[in-house]
Task: structure prediction
Amino acid sequence: MSIIYDPKDKTITLQTLNTTYQMEITPLNILRHLYYGRRIPAASQAALMPALDIGYTPNPYELRVERDFSRDIQPSEYSAANTGDFRVAALDARDARGRYGDDLRYAGHAITPGKYALEGLPCAGGDEDSCDTLSVTLRDAATGLEVELLYGVYEAEDVITRAARIRNGGEARVTLERAASMTLDMPYGDWQMIHFHGRHAMERQMERADLIHGLQSIGSSRGASSHHHNPFVILCDREAGEECGECLGVMPVYSGSHRTDVEVDQLGGVRVVSGISPELFSWTLEPGETFTAPEALLAFTHEGLGALSRRYHRFIRRHIIKSAWNRRPRPVLINNWEATYFDFDSDKLLEIARRAADMGVELLVLDDGWFGQRCDDNRALGDWTVNADKLRGGLDRLIERVNALGLRFGIWMEPEMVSEDSDLYRAHPDWALTVPGRRPTMGRNQLVLDMGREDVRSYLYDTIAALLSNHHIEYVKWDMNRSMTDIYSRILPPERQGEAGHRYMLGVYELLERLTDAFPEVLWEGCAGGGGRFDAGMLRYFPQIWLSDDTDALERLTIQHGSTYGYPVSTMGAHVSACPNHQTGRTVPLGTRAVVAMSGTFGYELDPARLTDAERAQVRDQIARFKGWYDLLQNGDYYRLTVPGADRCMAWEQVSADRSEALVSLVITHTVPNTRGVRLRLRGLDPEARYRLDALALEGCTAHSRCQLRPGQDIFSGAALMYAGVLLPQLYGDYPSAQLHFTRV
Ligand code: GLA
Result:
């Protein structure tokens, strides 16, 4: 059992292979956090938190003359407002009698094998062999409010999950103004914070910064996890790099408005509070009702950022993604969006499919524009019936012909949205989120459906289920193309309007749960204007998510780099698109575009008719190469070898679990004259083993590039490749690239 309760010391210790987490039930029944970090024995670490009397820190009533215990400086497992802890609170509640705050005291705990489930929310799975659950109940004696803290301990994966259930056990109505998933206090250490900010078409830009005293927050109030702040924060020590240093990750399993607060307190301690954003949020609990706060995934390692990432990759693949496609080879796809935008008909699509099939592509994705009067992005969202002018003969005729070419068929939808100019909106204007008496703010000239409504969800379920049952559709791209504003639900009373945003998310999850259960063989790809909802919550249902609307391979290097801190390659939708690139106007060699897209779920998004014969042959080779290395690329252990901007290249590596194979990919982002090639130190190899350079692919280099490496012949020791590095060819030209495949001999 990975959870140990010591009745003498009153500690509860969570042990994973390499980490320890400990809490203590103090004599006053205040649940105190003691430790999270490298694995240590389960003995009490109470001495780490000695009694301290610091001026102006209030004390619990029972202590009075003894002033050496204050909630204001002691580490907490779940912080609540208005009871002597002035740092950021996870719980901010008031009851109908006007009582703000909760004096939470320990009321009991239970340890059970297996993993808890969360009502209506995505969370990690796991059986009795992979996980144990700790549930600790805290109670406020005055209001009767109860908080059940949940901990899932995944021993082998070194991951601890957290969540909370808040129950109104009193007699008065309670309103939650904030109900975060967790508090984590780190009273020791000198931490920096890494987070992933961005904007549309430029998601997950990694930023690392010193912490300042006071609060720093990352989050979203857009109703989606957002392009702007991914729900993932890492604290790491100053020296932490890819291969060394302490790092701690906090990843909410949530796709709506979220917030992670990081506060440095008066004594230099760091508090993290993470969960649903309190902005525009409140939740009413009648007596006996329960609110469930989403899960967060915690991981700690002293072995650097690379090890932390691999921990998340493994965990997400093992316990978050439930799709059968998780482990299956995904088809190489072609998407018609950047090839045609709205300007297509069946003939054009079939022409794309025919040429794509000839190049080895396996799936045609019909993107936006196939339904209703959708000739541009101003209309018809909600009218999910085929546009017979564009698809003459209907969907089945098209699918049959696509299938006859040997391709599967997939389709785009944006179910959560409605256009004003649509039959759906004309029939149900009240289904959209709008504030009565006010004109709504528009985004892409569309409105957001109130997914908190049962009637909206059943309409969508019936519509989508009919589409999938009546036609041979094997893939769905589920898009969501605007931020949420004017959040007001016509079915909620005034005092419950603060619930509309989270009820929306619960509705989305319920619909996705039903659909993915009913159609488990469909490959579902998530999307939100690219990567605007790329998070662990969505990954529960979508084994892959379109990473960004920016398909420029050079920009993608940074976006993919940032995304790999938390998410595995097999989840990142990535396509080779046409050049000059539609977002940046940049031209990157076709070969380099493929090298970048291969470290994602590989596909194309261009019109093959516009490629030359030579380019089509090149694509054929790319697909063959991708398939040959599929397992390594998609399932291998991922190592970042460079950081954006610091080198004149970006390089990364995938290594097989048994370390018998490694694939290094490199793109020169800035070519300089008269120099040797880049020297790259590899990672994750067996230092005792010898590796042969089996294959070398050079892409997009000019004739005067020089290559000294001899694929098939050169043999290196694993240690030398890691400690000295391999000297790469001298590559010249605009954005040349290389892939080096090593096999243990
Ligand atoms: C979003 C997606 C794109 C494309 C368009 C269609 O922007 O991210 O890939 O599907 O919508 O409107």
Observations:
- The mean pLDDT is 97.
- Residues 171 and 287 are 5 Å apart (CA to CA).
